[in-house]
Amino acid sequence: MSALFLYAHGGSGNHGCEAIVRTTAELLHEQDITLFSTRPQEDLRCGLSELCRVREEKQPCSKASPAFLSAYLALKLRRDYRPLDRLPFSKAAREVGRGDLALSIGGDNYCYADVMRYVMLHDIFRRRGAATILWGCSIEPSLLGRKELADDLASYSLITARETISYEALKRVNPNTILVSDSAFSLKPLFPALPEGFAVGNTVGINLSPMVLQNDREDGLTMRNYRKLIGEILQNTDMTIALIPHVIWEGNDDRQSLAELKAFFPQEERIVTIPDLGCRELKGVISQCRFFVGARTHATIAAYSSCVPTLVMGYSIKSRGIARDLFGNEEGYVLPIGSLQDEDALTEAFRALMKREDSVRKHLAEVLPAYTERALAGKTALGKL
Predict the structure, then answer these.
(1) Cα separation, 20 vs 14, whole angstroms
(2) Rounded to the nearest 10 degrees, how much is the dihedral formed by the CA atoms of 212, 214, 220, 224?
(3) N or C: which end of the chain has fewer CB within 10 A?
(4) Residues 164, 262 share a domain
(5) pTM to 2 decimals?
């Protein structure tokens, strides 16, 4: 049987990344799975070693080794930096052989500035003879105008796109593209002890990320929208508010953004803060909310898949695509950061969602079984490989 390797994984401090690994491993449970990770200590702390072997993605190479000397000469004599860039991944690559499956599981990695790193990693595993799969991905269609990206994407053995916008764009570049749902929709929740004051079934879960704040069209506008929303909930409803982090990476830590938000309401007893938890526990908390307002995609997936009416503060194609596939239209479900005009936009969108609460909950209950099962198409396609 072919071995299966998961790569382009940033670490489980992003609990969306953790959720993808967990649900992918469960979906492909009969496979021999190795996870190459940028932050393996986070994965070990979250217990991913129970599902797969966890390996450090990059390994140091001795400067006295022939491989380093060859790569260094390539840089100095030909100004070719690629051999030196590839060198830290050479040990991991040697574990992969012809006929194995290499899944790039980073989701939207191709949407960010360091995209050429993932192009390089793909080329490394492809040269080892592995069948390469871009797994559960999203990509901004305009990026496919870059020839180096289009050529790279065309060379994958299989692409599974997690929403229709990306699927339709990628299908034009690589015919071996299929439409799936994000495997994290099938994540099984765990239910930790809730903080005092959390009102089960009558709490608004709120997630805010530094990435959303950095995408402000006007400095501080997103934070003012969140602050206004909390004021609205406290003044005009009896609901509790739970501040829920989903990524805790240094320099990109939701807890810092949420603490900044909480500081506007220092004595408010109806605001509780959820500590860092694993992705299953976080889904358990989110599933007990009445509404959810979130910036992190997998925090909103935890809410959607628990039939919690959800409003997404979106900054990328994935939030629009997932909402469109679930509801037929993202309007009223996704508030693009770049479209914020004033500090009342989020509050007005939330009021509209409250009016549709029952119909949204009913709709999710009806569509989720078939939608979630769509992830199985990826497993079937891998079997053919």
Answers:
(1) 10
(2) 10
(3) N
(4) no
(5) 0.93
